[in-house]
From TrEMBL:
It comes from the Bacteria. It comes from Chania multitudinisentens RB-25. InterPro entries: WH-like_DNA-bd_sf (IPR036388), WH_DNA-bd_sf (IPR036390). SUPFAM superfamilies: Winged helix' DNA-binding domain. This is Transcriptional regulator.
Length: 217
C-alpha cells in the first residue's frame, strides 16, 4: 500500500484503504457503519476493509461501552497506521538533533531553530501578499500547512474567531525531542496571521491533533 498522498496542497487518499486510514487520522476512531456512510459504501464493506487493514497491523478494533446495550466496536489507527503518513524522515532528524545538542550545545540548537523560524516566516509571509483580511490569511495558512503534510483544515466560528486544525504532524518525532519547534511555529502563525493564536490541542502531549484558536488582535 502506498503512503497517503499529501502533495500539492491536496490532502487526498485514492484507494479505499487509504481513505479509511485518512478518515481515522482526521476524524478519530470510527464504527464501520459510520465509515461506510462517509465512503459511500455499506458498513459491512467498510468492516471488511478494516479487517484487512488490521491484518496488516495498521488498525485495531476496541470495544467501547456507550450507556445501555452492547459495546460498540471502534476502529483505531495503530502506531504503524499512524506512521503510514509522512513523517519527514523522523529517525534521521532525531539523530541529528541529538548530535547537535550533545556536541555543540543547547544554545546552538536553539539558534538553528530560530533560523528556521525566520526562514519559515519569510516563506509564509510571501504567500500572504494580497490577503485582504484574517479569514483569507487563515485559509492561506491552512493551504500551506496541508501542502507541507499537516493535513490542515480551518473553520470560522460563530463568535468571529477561527479554528485551524492539523490532523498530522510530519515533524512529530523532532518536536517530541525538541519542543522549541512548536514554540517557533506558534510564533510564526501569530506573525503571519497578525492575530492572537492559542494552541488548544497538541499532538506531542498526547492529543490526536493540533488545534489553534485564532482571534483578531
Amino acid at each position: 500500500m502506498s503512503r497517503i498522498n499529501l502533495e500539492n496542497g491536496e490532502c487526498t487518499a485514492h484507494s479505499v484503504s487509504d481513505r479509511l486510514l485518512k478518515l481515522l487520522k482526521t476524524c478519530g476512531p470510527q464504527q464501520a457503519s459510520d465509515a461506510g456512510k462517509v465512503l459511500g459504501t455499506t458498513g459491512e464493506a467498510a468492516r471488511q476493509q478494516f479487517v484487512k487493514l488490521a491484518k496488516e497491523g495498521l488498525v485495531e478494533a476496541i470495544a467501547e461501552t456507550r450507556g445501555v446495550g452492547r459495546p460498540v466496536q471502534l476502529w483505531h489507527l495503530t502506531p504503524a497506521g499512524d506512521a503510514h503518513f509522512p513523517n519527514a524522515h523522523a529517525e534521521l532528524t532525531v539523530q541529528l538533533l541529538r548530535t547537535v545538542r550533545n556536541t555543540l550545545g543547547e544554545q546552538v540548537l536553539e539558534q538553528l531553530i530560530d533560523n528556521r523560524e525566520q526562514e519559515t516566516y519569510i516563506n509564509y509571509q510571501q504567500s500572504m501578499i494580497g490577503a485582504a483580511n484574517l479569514r483569507e490569511r487563515v485559509a492561506r495558512l491552512a493551504a500551506i500547512r496541508c501542502n507541507e503534510g499537516y493535513m490542515a483544515e480551518w473553520s470560522e466560528l460563530a463568535d468571529g474567531t477561527f479554528l485551524l486544525v492539523e490532523n498530522h504532524c510530519p515533524i512529530h518525532a523532532a518536536a517530541t525531542v525538541c519542543k522549541e519547534f512548536c514554540r517557533a511555529e506558534l510564533n510564526v502563525f501569530a506573525k503571519v496571521l497578525q492575530a492572537k493564536v492559542e494552541r488548544t490541542e497538541h499532538i506531542p502531549t498526547g492529543a490526536r491533533r493540533c488545534t489553534y484558536r485564532i482571534s483578531p488582535l
